Amino acid sequence: MIVLGEDELQQAEKALAPLSPAAVKVYGCLFSINRGKALNLEVVADSWPDFSVLVCKPKVQGTADREGDFNIYSIFSRDQASLKKLLSSPGLLRWDAFTLLAGVDINHLDAVTDLAAQHGVPARTQCVMHVLMLNSHDQLRVYQSVPEDRIRPLQAEHAALVNSTWKYGGDHNSYNSVLGYISNHPSLCVMDEGGGGPLSWVLVYHHLALGLLYTLPQHRRKGYAKTLVSRMAGRLLELGYPVYCFVEEGNSASYGLFTSLGFTVKESFRAVWLEINEK
């Protein structure tokens, strides 16, 4: 087990860039870390420089944001055996604590569930995700249904509203996460015509996936979400960010929205969020 230093983190980012979609979540973490945007994350490799597994995890567990509270580990693995060997390393995982393993290749899932069974702890699939990606401006289908002057970045003062509507929000730790996303990464919202506040918004997580896409119920079916994703995708491409999102299997509305804008999916790949122990 090797904790990557500054030079290794830069090298790992370059190595992972062409390995999407399987590596895109850890690549996004590395991109943020290398630009000083995710200070409580570190990356562990099974070997270096010829790695087969990279794990991005909190430096300090239990910190007062969702990432620390949920003890989220982002996973990239080339094969099951290497993944199982690294996760077995003493001190990498606490088998007596809640841990969320995020982005596990569905074809490597048995390695993790077998380990959990060996430790006598429960393991439960939280969700299975498609990874939808946009690789160039040529691929993007531009859409805009809102006047330019109503599309603006979110501000720190909007974090409470976003947190109150987030599927995983509603408490102080999730509020801190939302505030961190707004403060460190691009975001966009559609503002009320009268200046009353955001009606629809999209943010970027620390692993740089598009997320928290939401429109207030009374303002839906006006093309706000589609407009924001189109604008955000173009902005991220300009900044050199990876442009991608996770869409849960069965969520046909979100799947249709992203594919209508030019996002594509590799059907053979699925990413699993796996819970170890109960929260």
Could you write a compact summary of the structure shown?
By secondary structure, the protein is an alpha+beta fold. It is built from nine helices and 13 strands.
Alpha-beta content class: alpha+beta
N- to C-terminal separation? 26 Å
How many distinct domains? Answer: 2
Which H/E pattern describes the elements? EHHEEHEHEHEEHHEEEHEHEE
Rg over CA atoms: 19 Å
- Could you please say which CATH topology of the largest domain applies here? Aminopeptidase
Largest sheet: 9 strands, mixed
CATH homologous superfamily designation of the largest domain: Gcn5-related N-acetyltransferase (GNAT)
Mean pLDDT: 95
Number of strands: 13
- Outline type: globular
Under the CATH scheme, which architecture of the largest domain would be assigned?
3-Layer(aba) Sandwich
The CATH class of the largest domain, by name, is: Alpha Beta
The number of distinct helices, counting runs of at least 4 residues, comes to 9
Residue fraction in strands? 25-35%
> Roughly what percent helix?
25-40%
* Unreliable segments of 5+ consecutive residues: none
Oligomeric form of this entry? single chain
Secondary structure: elements and pairs:
Layout: E1 2-3, H1 6-16, H2 24-33, E2 41-45, E3 53-58, H3 66-69, E4 72-77, H4 80-87, E5 99-105, H5 109-118, E6 123-134, E7 151-152, H6 159-165, H7 172-184, E8 188-191, E9 198-204, E10 210-215, H8 224-239, E11 243-248, H9 252-260, E12 264-265, E13 271-276
Parallel strand pairs: 4-5
Antiparallel strand pairs: 1-2, 2-3, 3-4, 5-13, 6-11, 6-12, 6-13, 7-8, 8-9, 9-10
Helix pairs in contact: 1-2, 4-5, 6-7
